[in-house]
Amino acid sequence: MKLVDVVAERGPLTARSLSDSTGIVIGTVYRLVRTLVHEEYLARTHDGRYVLGSQFATVAELEGRARDYRLVREAMTRLATATRSHVMIGGLIHGEVEVWSMVEHPAAPRVDCWPGVRLPGHATAVGKSILAQAESGQREAYLSRNPLHRYTCHTIKASSRLERQLASPALSISDQEFRYGVTCIAAQLAVASTPAALGLAYSSNRSVRAQDELENILLPAASKISNLLSHNRVSGPLGVV
């Protein structure tokens, strides 16, 4: 939640000042602050600057949340280093699958993801994990708005096959279903406010044994991050590292 941290420390700030302070491009800042204002983590003043929203009732609460969000980012960075993978957290926002936070690793192939980007629920591991947790009505509404578009020859096109994969709760996988050369695995995050998932994206050239090792690293990390996010009842973007 880098934007909230900066506002807490230096606010009120304009979107341009937030972009300059965080290094996040201005277009992404606008998308993030819209969500943060909607979720009441930030509020917009009459002159267009941003201040802390009503989600932060006290300074002590703000400090506690900021500390836990930093711990989440640190955990994601350690996970990226240990697995040589991109690490992302995604969730269901206004009925769509979106990236909340992203930590990139130079050894992993390019994936073109950043906080606020929508992911196809049927073609990504994070998306599948989130849809698996969604209530049946939420999932049906999502799939009615988002047909099973083919991104590669490996993309799931049959709804029956997708439903079978969503029935497996522990780990979700996308093997070159969204991008050729990219494999993703994701674990569910126990966040009370909304379905969420922690995912790894890495080269599809890795051996089966190496992928098994990634799964063994991912699950404990998901448990730790779940505890931090549940404590703060997060339901929106956390920022970018």
UniProtKB/TrEMBL annotation:
A single BP term in Gene Ontology = negative regulation of DNA-templated transcription
Protein name per UniProt: IclR family transcriptional regulator
Q: Which residues form the IclR-ED domain?
A: 54-231
The GO molecular function terms of this record are:
DNA binding; DNA-binding transcription factor activity
Instruction: Tell me which residues make up the HTH iclR-type domain.
Output: 1-54
List the source organism. Mycolicibacterium peregrinum (Mycobacterium peregrinum)
Q: Which PANTHER family match?
A: HELIX-TURN-HELIX TRANSCRIPTIONAL REGULATOR, ICLR FAMILY, HTH-TYPE TRANSCRIPTIONAL REPRESSOR ALLR
Record Pfam families: HTH_IclR, IclR_C
Give the record's keywords alphabetically: DNA-binding, Transcription, Transcription regulation
